Amino acid sequence: MIAEIGHFALILAFLMALSQAVTAFWGAARRDARLIAATRAGALLQLLFVAMAFTALAISYLMPDFSVALVAAHSHSTQPAIYRLAATWGSHEGSLLLWVLILSVYGAAAAVFGKNLRPTLVSRMLGVQALIGLAFLGFALFTSNPFLRLDPAPLDGSELNPLLQDPGLVLHPPLLYLGYVGFSAAYALAAAALLEGRADMAFARWLRPWVIAAWSALTLGIALGSWWAYYELGWGGWWFWDPVENASLMPWLAGTALLHSAIVLEKRGALISWTLLLAVLTFSLSLLGTFLVRSGVLTSVHAFAVDPARGAAILGFTVLATGTALALYAWRAPSMRTGAVFAPVSREAGMTLNNLFLMACTTTVFLGTFYPVFVEVTSTDRISVGPPYYALTFVPLSLPLLALVAFGPMLNWKRDALSAVIRRLRWPLLISSAALVLIVVNFGLERLMQALGLGLGVWLILGSLWLLVRRWSAGARSEFWRRVRSTPPAFWAIVLAHAGLGVSTVGIACVTALESSAVLTLQPGQGADFAGRRIVLTGADIVQGPNYRAERITVSMTGPGVDRDISSERRFYPVAGTQTTEAGIDLGLTGAYYVSVGERRGDAVVVRVWNHPFVGWIWWGAMIMAAGGAVSLLDRRLRIAVPAGKEIRA
After folding, report:
1. Is residue 422 helix, strand or coil?
2. What pLDDT is stored for residue 243 in this prediction?
């Protein structure tokens, strides 16, 4: 009965999305307050119905109800309850329902918090959101129904992919979807502004919170996925340039450019066309990622292996949504320019150059991701694009981008002088230059790119902190603590976001340049020296988990000020017939020692060990960046009511 309730709620949500789209555009065209109010109510009801459907599916997993085909395919009675719940979004159908749920959450939020904005703009935004929801709800109902029954019902089900039975994967997909789908709000708002032929300060101020919220969630989602790959897959890597990893990176890069453009539009009324275009492209890249994992054109632990027909339907909607928005942009954008001008040296120019580099980086990732897919689909050939391609294309573009980031906040709006900016940054420049010389001497010229990356990470951190130093040291000393207390959240957000980027850059450069590894074959009691530590195999046991058997090894690590035990497991899941590796990691401020159990050789065990200097900084930096986004949302200026403008008739 619960599955039928969920199915019926999904049908009601589809009908409500259709009704919402009609009332939204009709009400905006007629400037009818009653229809616009009905549109807001429709967004809230759509959220209610989708939430009912999602809850019904989650309950079916938790019971578990194996008469539901999706539950039988991705859950087993021996699975821990937390992973039965996570299986709700661990399949194509379930993850699609989560996608629609988050879309309806954003739509309801727009209806609730947009009351002080121009009513016709919010109405058209909700109309576009409703059309997106209508497409995906229809796709779920007619091709990917999560509530199909089995008759007769099996006594037990199949297991969720063991690689996905992990605490990190409980949060990773929801965070990614909060980012992906969050950019739909920016897309819908841009489309609404294009329909009205008007993008003003109210539009820019309303756009920024949606972009910040989506960008922050996507940052955390990418970082959590990277951390999961690091400790779960057992190969000691944090990024592999997998196509689905790239599918999350592309909207993040484009979203970063969109965020900076929205700031310029809000402050100076410039870059209107650029902002609108980026809003369309960012969500389009999110849709492409949705297509990539559901098209069946690639094999990846991230991908849902489904038939290509369903992937073609998503690709068709992506082309339709992007093409329609771009046609609307070509029609309206030329008439939406303002008279805002700025000098070649100004904050506006700096952000524009920053965005050009970001989009160039996005383009290289796009080509590296989709060219092999295109070749495979159109011919019998198979090609692979891996880290060497990105080292030759992405890295050279990202280095000047990182160098520019610290200059942006130091530039004045409209007009500035390069000599004045350099004077403001002279101490970070001097310290970073000295650090770079020492790093190059230590790394050697053969690792020059990594040395430059580390130097730029130091430059970003110092440049960000220097913003606070300049702000707090300006004026009388007696006013110091008042200036500290009065620092607005938006200012803290800039410092945290840029400093977090610097922290991640330091981690990436250090682990790339300085990592070391070894393969040891040890019997219990035997040891070996590695990277300044003594590693001794102290135990090798067989343990039983709730739904797996595991071969567990324990090694003791000793060194200067270090004496601890680390365990690593090789697990076998009988139901799925799959084996996974759980690495043992000693993570500290200056790096991580990573232990992965290998095969047995008689009484001996193969133990793979890595030393990853400063690898934790990669994820800590991402958390600092996301914290910057969260702090930015606390800024009162993003919550000030914007005048609604001309009254509309009732």
Report:
1. helix
2. 83
What phi and psi, each to the nearest 5 degrees, are found at residue 200? Answer: -115, -165
Rounded mean pLDDT, 335-349: 83
Sign of the CA dihedral with 215 first, then 218, 222, and 224 last: positive
E strands within 420-561? 516-522, 527-530, 533-544, 549-559
Mean pLDDT of 630-644: 66
Tell me the H-state helices in 269-346: 272-294, 308-332
Q: Is the pLDDT of residue 528 over 80?
A: yes
Inter-CA distances, 193 with 573, 598, 612, Å? 53, 57, 48
pLDDT (tens digit per residue) in 431-482: 999 999 999 998 888 899 999 999 999 999 999 999 999 988 887 777 888 8
Q: What's the CA dihedral at 468, 473, 475, 481 to 10 degrees? A: 80
Q: Rounded to the nearest 5°, which phi and psi values hold at 156?
A: -150, 170
Given the structure tokens 């009912």, which residue do they identify? 52
Task: Round to the nearest angstrom and report the end-to-end CA distance of the chain.
Answer: 43
The Cα 565–Cα 555 span in angstroms is: 6
CB 107 within 8 A of CB 46: yes
User: Any residues with CB less than 8 A from the CB of 590 and at least 6 apart, and which?
Assistant: 613, 614
Residue 520's beta-bridge partner residues?
Answer: 607
Query: Looking at residue 561, what is its pLDDT?
Result: 84
Q: At which residue do the structure tokens 């990105």 appear?
A: 390
Distance of CA 9 to the CA centre of its chain: 29
CA 2/CA 10 separation, integer angstroms? 12
At residue 642, the pLDDT reads 45
Token pair recorded at residue 64:
């578990």
Two structure tokens written together for 61: 């997993």
The arithmetic mean of pLDDT across residues 178-194, rounded, is: 94
CB atoms within 10 A of CB 412: 16
Least confident range of 53-67, 419-433, 631-645: 631-645
Mean residue pLDDT across the chain: 89
The answer to whether 51 touches 101, Cβ cutoff 8 Å, is yes
Q: Dihedral sign, CA of 250, 253, 256, 261?
A: negative
**Per-residue model confidence as pLDDT tens digits over 33-47:** 999 999 999 999 999
What Rg, from alpha-carbon coordinates, does the chain have?
A: 26
Please identify which residue in the block is written with the tokens 């060219």.
Answer: 371
* pLDDT tens sequence across 317-329: 999 999 999 999 9
Distances from the Cα of 246 to the Cα of 168, 229, 321, 340, angstroms: 19, 14, 21, 36
**Nearest-CA neighbor of 613 among 510, 530, 505, 535?**
510
Burial of 382 (0-12, 13-18, 19+ CB in 10 A): exposed
Q: How far apart are CA 187 and CA 279, in angstroms?
A: 5
Beta bridge partners of 596: 608
69: CB partners within 8 A, 6+ apart: 148, 149, 150
